[in-house]
Amino acid sequence: MTVNELTLNNGVAMPPLGLGVFQSAPEETANAVATALETGYRHIDTAAAYLNEREVGEGIRRSGLDRDDVFIETKVWVSDYGYDETLHAFEKATGKLGVDRLDLLILHQPATDRFEKTIAAYKALETLLQRGDVRAIGVSNFTPQHLDRLLAETEVVPAVNQVELHPYFAQRDVQSADAEHGILTQAWSPIGGITFYPGWGE
To answer: Is residue 96 part of a domain?
Structure first.
C-alpha cells in the first residue's frame, strides 16, 4: 500500500490513512495492529478511553517495524484535563504504549462544562510539544466556537481537529473553520456513522 503523506501545519508528515482501534477489544488489538502494519498501514490511532493503548504498543513491537516508521496518535481523556493532569496523562500513555515520544497527541473532547480545564490541558500539550515529547498536538470533536475559545487563550494552532466525518455527516462549518486556521480536519468513522444515518427509515 503506497499513499502520499499529509503535511501538518508545523511541517510534520502524517500518513493519511490510519487504523483506528475504537471498540477494538484489548485481546484482539495487538494482532489487529500487527496485521495492519504488515499490510502497509503506518498510522495507528488510539486513545486513553479506548483502554487498549498497551495492546497497541504490543502490536507495534510485534510488527518488527522501527519506531520511526509508525505514526502513533493517541488522545487525552477529559478526566485527565488540567495542566499537571495532562502532563501525567502523557506519561501514562507513553508508558502503556512502550514509547518515549508520540507523533500526535490530542484532546478527546472539548469538555464544555469545564472549559478552563480544557485550556489548561491544551497548554500542557504545548509544553510537551516545546519539549519535543510530542511531534504535533491537536483536538477532537471541537466545533468552530470551541476552536475560537481555544485559539484566544493558547499559542499553538492545533495541527488537527478529529471529528466524525463521512458522507452522511459532512460538518461543513467545522471543515471551513479548520481550513481558515490551517487545521487539518481528520475524520473518524469516515465511511459512515456508528449507530445512526440521517434519512434512513423515512
So the answer is: yes
Band (pLDDT 50/70/90 cuts) for residue 193 is low
Tens digit of pLDDT for each residue in 142-163?
A: 999 999 999 999 999 999 999 9
- Is 50 designated active site? yes
In a domain, 154, yes or no: yes
Question: Looking at 41, 50, 81, 122, which residue is catalytic?
Answer: 50
Which residues constitute the domain of residue 59?
20-188
Q: SS3 for the chain, per residue?
A: CCCCCEECCCCCEECCCCEECCCCCHHHHHHHHHHHHHHCCCEEECCHHHCCHHHHHHHHHHHCCCHHHCEEEEEECHHHCCHHHHHHHHHHHHHHHCCCCECEEEECCCCHHHHHHHHHHHHHHHHHHHHCCECCEEEECCCHHHHHHHHHHCCCCCCEEEEECECCECCHHHHHHHHHHCCEEEEECCCCCCCCCCCCCC
Q: How many domains does the chain have?
A: 1
Domain contains 198 = no
- Summary mean pLDDT of the chain: 92
Whether the full predicted model's pTM is greater than 0.85, yes or no, is yes
